[in-house]
């Protein structure tokens, strides 16, 4: 089992509040891993801290056995849709091209081949017809898929996705899952912050249960148990999902 | 007047007009990126904070027996003073619970007050040839030396070149700083580069447009340009175009009509560009809105 990402006693503080507490876990290649836990459990924060978007209080995250700086070319990220201003004057295709920034550098102009690859990424999320639209003209689910296409454009081996299914309809959800399963089948590691407990066993291979501290991590069959869920959610577990 | 617009009212007036156009191009382009980064008010504090530096630099140069109006020297003082203002501003935002708008208000008024005290004191001294200093308040092209114009125009071209190199990372950090960081683009560095370019155009602009009005040349063309397009690149070009046209027109008009204040005319022209955009821009303008409502 090749480890794509290892959290090692990773902690994050927001002021005096411990948002993530000493999390140690490993994310393997060739699997889809869900990060699951109640609101405020530090799921997004765990990803952001690993990526250096928010500061770590202690501990570290190692990517492919090395630092993020060494491994950056292999790591793709899809932030929450709500994290940006969708009135920004930019077209869909240009957002996708952002994913290729490491290849483009500061000065190299965008060539036809770059555009063609960005269009391939848009085709994989079924947005070919929207390439020249302003991003604000898209529905929430379409915006989510633009961010996924941008992550695909990074040609990474580890995909970290922050709530990729938040606020999307069932059809979009299924389309996104197909893309992610395709990445997994090519051998990549896919990690998604996820809310819908019912779909975890259907779509994901592995699960990481988090409530500030790590409750459990491992294959869904072994870890995704009523007892572990009760421990993760406290008394707040919805009855349907506790069954 | 027509002669001035056709650049036929003498070599110096022509030079000043082209210099003001270069300044407007650079300021409009920088302002577009600043507007997208939602930091449009910061240069107002930076511009007002230049004034104490102008006064102190004048006094230092006179004390050493030099000519107080040496523009590069005055701009050096203005730059140091403006950076100090920016530093205080960021200290207030990070070190206290003050929101940025309140901190801007504090820095802007305090530095401006100190600058006025100094400039008034200098005028009372009668030292050196201080006649040009009030130009830093409201802007003036009267009495500008040829070297001053070269400095302003050359600086404007350098700013445009730097913007061209940084365009992709500036857009990325303005749109999605967290994502930029994951790609290895450091938002703090990109923001610092943007602020350096803002400082550069503020310094180039205070002699022509004045410390009080230079912010208008940063904000208004960008806001007007945003109405015409949904693409960053096009928006930057339109913003630069509005700034450049206003700089050209304002300098030409004040060359043709003695006593017309250059800075104020440039800002009035920029505002005219904004009004035209607000009415006629197809998607975001008033007429388009009325047509869709009908």
What is the assigned CATH homologous superfamily of chain A? P-loop containing nucleotide triphosphate hydrolases
Stretches with pLDDT under 50, minimum 5 residues of chain A: none
Overall shape of chain A: it is: globular
By DSSP (H or I, 4+ residues per run), the number of helices of chain A equals 11
| CATH topology heading of chain B | ABC transporter involved in vitamin B12 uptake, BtuC
> Which class of secondary structure composition applies to the elements of chain A?
alpha/beta
Give the helix/strand class of chain B.
Answer: mainly alpha
Number of strands of chain B: 0
How confident is the prediction overall: mean pLDDT of chain B?
Answer: 90
Q: Which regions of chain B have little confidence, pLDDT < 50, spanning 5+ residues? A: none
Helix content of chain B: over 70%
Largest sheet of chain B: none
How many distinct helices of chain B? 14
Helix and strand element order of chain A? EEEHEHEHHHHEHEHEEHHH
Please characterize this protein's 3D structure.
The complex is a heterodimer of chains A (about 240) and B (about 290). Chain A has about 240 residues and is of the alpha/beta class. Chain A has one domain (about 5-240): P-loop containing nucleotide triphosphate hydrolases (Rossmann fold). Chain A is built from eleven helices and nine strands. Chain A has helices at about 45-50, 70, 90-100, 100-105, 110-125, 140-150, 170-185, 200-205, 220-225, 225-235, 240; strands at about 5-15, 15-30, 30-35, 60-65, 75-80, 160, 190-195, 205-210, 215-220. In chain A, strands 5-6-7-3-8-9 form a six-stranded mixed β-sheet, sandwiched between helices. A three-stranded antiparallel β-sheet of chain A has the order 2-1-4. In chain A, strand 1 and strand 2 form a beta hairpin. In chain A, helix 3 packs parallel to helix 6 (about 140-150) and helix 5 (about 110-125) crosses helix 6. Chain A is globular. Chain A starts with a strand and ends with a helix. The mean pLDDT of chain A is about 90. Chain B has about 290 residues and is mainly alpha-helical. Chain B has a single domain (about 1-290), classed as Orthogonal Bundle (ABC transporter involved in vitamin B12 uptake, BtuC), CATH 1.10.3470.10. Chain B has 14 helices and no strands. Chain B has helices spanning about 1-5, 10-35, 40-50, 50-65, 70-95, 100-125, 135-140, 145-175, 175-180, 185-205, 215-225, 230-255, 260-280, 285-294. In chain B, helix 3 (about 40-50) runs parallel beside helix 6 (about 100-125) and helix 5 (about 70-95) packs antiparallel against helix 6. The longest helix of chain B has 30 residues, at about 145-175. Chain B is globular and about 65 Å long. The mean pLDDT of chain B is about 90. Classes of the chains: A alpha/beta (about 240), B mainly alpha (about 290).
């Amino acid at each position: 089992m090749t480890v794509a990402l290892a959290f090692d006693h990773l902690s994050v503080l927001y002021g005096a509040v411990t948002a993530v507490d000493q999390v140690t876990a490993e994310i393997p290649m060739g699997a889809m891993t869900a990060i699951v836990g109640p609101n405020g459990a530090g799921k997004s924060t765990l990803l952001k801290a690993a990526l250096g978007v928010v500061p770590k209080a202690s501990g570290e995250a190692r990517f492919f056995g090395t630092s993020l700086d060494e491994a950056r070319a292999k790591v793709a990220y899809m932030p929450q849709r709500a994290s940006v201003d969708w009135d920004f004057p930019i077209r869909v295709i240009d957002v996708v091209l952002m994913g290729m920034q490491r290849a483009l550098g500061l000065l190299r102009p965008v060539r036809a081949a770059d555009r063609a690859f960005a269009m391939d990424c848009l085709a994989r999320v079924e947005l070919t017809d929207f390439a020249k639209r302003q991003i604000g003209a898209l529905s929430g689910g379409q915006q989510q898929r633009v961010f996924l296409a941008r992550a695909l454009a990074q040609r990474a081996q580890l995909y970290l996705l922050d709530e990729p299914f938040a606020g999307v309809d069932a059809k979009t959800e299924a389309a996104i899952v197909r893309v992610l399963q395709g990445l997994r089948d090519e051998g990549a590691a896919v990690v998604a912050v996820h809310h819908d407990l019912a779909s975890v066993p259907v779509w994901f291979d592995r699960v990481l249960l988090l409530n500030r501290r790590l409750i459990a991590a491992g294959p869904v069959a072994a870890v995704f148990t009523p007892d572990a869920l009760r421990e993760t959610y406290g008394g707040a577990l919805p009855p349907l999902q506790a069954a | 007047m027509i002669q001035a617009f056709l650049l036929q009212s003498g070599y110096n007036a022509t030079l000043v007009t082209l210099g003001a156009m270069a300044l407007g191009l650079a300021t409009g382009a920088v302002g577009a990126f600043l507007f997208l980064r939602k930091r449009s008010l910061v240069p107002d504090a930076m511009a007002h904070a230049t004034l104490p530096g102008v006064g102190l630099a004048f006094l230092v140069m006179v004390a050493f027996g030099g000519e107080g109006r040496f523009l590069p020297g005055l701009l050096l003082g203005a730059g140091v003073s403006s950076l100090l203002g920016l530093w205080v501003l960021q200290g207030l935002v990070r070190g206290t619970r003050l929101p940025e708008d309140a901190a801007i208000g504090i820095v802007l008024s305090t530095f401006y007050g100190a600058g006025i005290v100094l400039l008034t004191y200098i005028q009372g001294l009668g030292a050196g040839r201080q006649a040009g200093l009030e130009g830093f308040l409201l802007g003036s092209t009267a009495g500008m030396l040829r070297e001053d114009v070269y400095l302003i125009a050359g600086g404007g071209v350098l700013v445009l070149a730097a913007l061209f190199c940084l365009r992709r990372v500036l857009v990325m950090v303005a749109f999605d700083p967290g994502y930029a960081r994951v790609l290895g683009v450091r938002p703090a560095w990109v923001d610092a580069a943007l602020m350096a370019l803002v400082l550069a155009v503020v310094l180039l602009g205070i002699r022509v447009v004045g410390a009080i009005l230079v912010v208008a040349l940063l904000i208004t063309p960008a806001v007007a340009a945003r109405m015409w397009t949904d693409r960053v690149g096009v928006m930057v070009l339109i913003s630069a175009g509005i700034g450049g046209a206003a700089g050209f027109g304002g300098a030409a008009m004040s060359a043709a009509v003695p006593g017309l204040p250059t800075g104020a005319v440039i800002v009035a022209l920029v505002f005219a560009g904004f009004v035209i955009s607000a009415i006629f821009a197809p998607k975001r303008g008033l007429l388009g809105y009325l047509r869709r409502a009908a």
